[in-house]
């Protein structure tokens, strides 16, 4: 094979990227760390970028102060999930995109949701409840909603 593509010599052993580990949906508490996994194969080794709700995700490679890190494996690691009343920068639908000069591969969508903690007679998080602390009774009950 003696074709030339984008200034690189195409070799028989080169191949387009493919996703070998897709990210999974996550439900995470505010302030906690989280990882969206993504692993891609290809030759040459593909670069990986992440997109949230169609927009490219800024990581520590773009901004050293970012709370999101692109790991060598291609996974996206959150030092802490940021979630406020007005701003929910981490909650959304994510995909990873792997690219090399032969093409690109896009992962399945994965949603990242922040667990809701309700107040009142019970605390609820992600379909479960735990009785509030009671100084007179150290036993706490829990169940599913």
Describe the structure.
This is Roundabout-like protein. InterPro entries: Ig-like_dom, Ig-like_dom_sf, Ig-like_fold, Ig_I-set, Ig_sub, Ig_sub2. The chain is mainly β. It has 2 domains: 11-114, Sandwich (Immunoglobulin-like); 116-145, no CATH class. The protein contains no helices and 16 strands. Strands 4, 7, 8, 11, 12 and 13 form a 6-stranded mixed beta sheet that branches. A 3-stranded antiparallel beta sheet has the order 5-10-9, with no helix packed on it. β14 and β15 (128-130) form a beta hairpin. The radius of gyration is 21 Å and the shape is elongated. 18% of the residues are buried. The model is unreliable at 119-129 (pLDDT under 50).
Primary descriptors:
145 residues; mainly beta; Immunoglobulin-like; three-stranded antiparallel sheet; cell-cell adhesion mediator activity; immunoglobulin domain; Ig-like_fold; Ig_sub2; Ig-like_dom_sf
């Amino acid at each position: 094979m003696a074709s030339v593509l984008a200034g690189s010599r195409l070799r028989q052993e080169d191949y387009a990227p493919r996703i070998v580990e897709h990210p999974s949906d996550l439900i995470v508490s505010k302030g906690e760390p989280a990882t969206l996994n993504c692993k891609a194969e290809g030759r040459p080794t593909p670069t990986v970028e992440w997109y949230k709700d169609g927009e490219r995700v800024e990581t520590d490679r773009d901004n050293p102060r970012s709370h999101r890190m692109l790991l060598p494996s291609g996974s996206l690691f959150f030092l802490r999930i940021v979630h406020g009343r007005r701003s929910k920068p981490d909650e959304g639908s994510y995909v990873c995109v792997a690219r090399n000069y032969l093409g690109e591969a896009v992962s399945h969508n994965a949603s990242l949701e922040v667990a809701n903690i309700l107040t009142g007679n019970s605390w609820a998080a992600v379909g479960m409840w735990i009785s509030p602390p009671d100084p007179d009774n150290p036993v706490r009950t829990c169940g599913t909603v």
